[in-house]
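User: Can you write out an input/output pair for a complex, sequences first and structure second?

Assistant: Here is one pair. Inputs:
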Amino acid sequence: QKEVEQNSGPLSVPEGAIASLNCTYSDRVSQSFFWYRQYSGKSPELIMSIYSNGDKEDGRFTAQLNKASQYVSLLIRDSQPSDSATYLCAVNRVGGATNKLIFGTGTLLAVQP
Amino acid sequence: DTAVSQTPKYLVTQMGNDKSIKCEQNLGHDTMYWYKQDSKKFLKIMFSYNNKELIINETVPNRFSPKSPDKAHLNLHINSLELGDSAVYFCASSQGPTTYEQYFGPGTRLTVT
């Protein structure tokens, strides 16, 4: 079982719709969760972080965390063609005094005009 | 003003050669990382330095040798390049070793022929 799992997609949504991206993780003691956006040929860009159960909203983005189910999701409201990118879920691996992020393989989102 | 920069952006070389990639961050962060992203977009940590000290050393061939002359710079030297080393190498930084929000450089696309 991979430590961080995402559906590779592509997830295709029409412009203006809500895009829902999902991620599951295996390390039950993980405490920190992140969503990165990566445009083709570019570097990952941090767009959301979430540390406690529930929802966290930032503009059109909402991150949702359910630690009991080991599940984290990202909702993008009013999707725009400029949102088309690969979305990487990242989870911290707990292990002493160092910080290690484990990334999923990403979900490719395609927003159709 | 670029926060995390890398040089070169592209590197094309032949098998057996030795090459270096350089990274610099002007965020005032203490911790820097090297990641490898393969052709399937899987992003995996290789090394991490905190204030010039190596703190994460993943299972990476010893042909790869990182070096941090100061906390704002992190270099990666690769000896005897192999075809399988072809990938995009990203540098990243974070405020500290237990700060999970990481910021990535633009990447270096290495092609070994």
